[in-house]
Amino acid sequence: MFRGTVRYASVHAHLGRTASRRDDLESLAYTLIFLHRGRLPWQGYQGDNKSFLVCKKKMATSPEMLCCFCPPPLKQFLEIVVNMKFDEEPNYSKLISLFEGLIGPNPAVRPINTDGAQKIIYQVGQKRGRLTIDEEDDQPKKKVRLGVPATQWISIYNARLPMKQRYHYNVADARLAQHVEKGMADGLLISCVASYTNLWALIMDAGTGFTSQVYELSPSFLHKEWIMDQWEKNYYISSIAGSSGGSSLVVMSKDWIDQGPGLESGCELVRPGTGTQYTQQSYKVSDSFPFKWINKKWREGFYVTSMATTGSRWGVVMSRNAGFSDQVVELDFLYPSEGIHRRWDSGYRITSTAATSDQAALILSIPKRKPGDETQETLRTSQFPSTHVKEKWAKNLYLACLCYGRTVS
């Protein structure tokens, strides 16, 4: 989390991302708009989730809405800034030139008239003859942050050796057991679960590496007593999902032998010794995305291994000895496309995802053992991606995780 003034902070600062020059410019834009209007739309929020509410409002407020009572250059400035890429070099001369019509040609009347300002004014003046707003727009640029909010399926595909995989979606509670039993009879185990409204999606395949599996459909979100009972039987949480009605589907799996009893600590549950490569497991249910808890657990050697949501609540499972050397979170009120591609370039791969109607969170990890084929693809679809899944199978790409929630179209 960032330290600073919430009112003027950039969206990326709210979301816990590394700051760059675009964030300084975004904060400058909010400051200028505040000085012109006397107020910003996200002022007045209070409480522990103030930063969440302010960030949500910033993401939902378009430059047109925010600058509707401002001179056009402020809107143009903000539009350019919020669509800059992380490592993009700002064209300061271009940005300054936007305001020349407001300030006037005489440098003596400018509010701040320093030697440094005069040098920049001179540079802008030299470029005035050839500088236009569309100078860099000859090539179409993909907008980083502007778009229409949507709710969609987010599906992640990994390259695997050929294997059998099966999916079911729009599964009602009453039909879940028959799909699971049929899959297990065919040698398949559950690799991923998700939910759309109050229906379930189920992915089963032959490549989980588990030897045994149990699951529970509960009217509550992550049934504590059942989870602790299964920890005692050497199972660990391998996949979770939550419905919009508050119920949950928890899958727990077993491989090797176990080493110890379970513990409880407040609203966080901890299991030391889970019977697989994991040596300890913990989970937390939170009314907002639990950034601070995740950071604390990272320092203790845990990594996120499963996530789910119900309504605006988040459930996050973290495990020790998860096979990762590093891990990051990409959290967004739209969809963190830029962040995902930047992390891919640095060797990270998506290992877990979940979303509410407001936010999407993707966990990206660096595996300790580098896979032979690092290919990973993502899709966002309005309907369950059944056709796309079959197309991916033909290329030996298999569903690794999926969720339904906030994206951008």
TrEMBL record:
Matching Pfam families, A to Z?
Answer: DUF7477
Domain of life, per the record? Eukaryota
Q: Where is the DUF7477 domain?
A: 123-255, 262-409
Question: Member of which family?
Answer: Belongs to the protein kinase superfamily. CK1 Ser/Thr protein kinase family. Casein kinase I subfamily.
Q: Which PANTHER family match?
A: CASEIN KINASE-RELATED
- Which protein is depicted? DUF7477 domain-containing protein
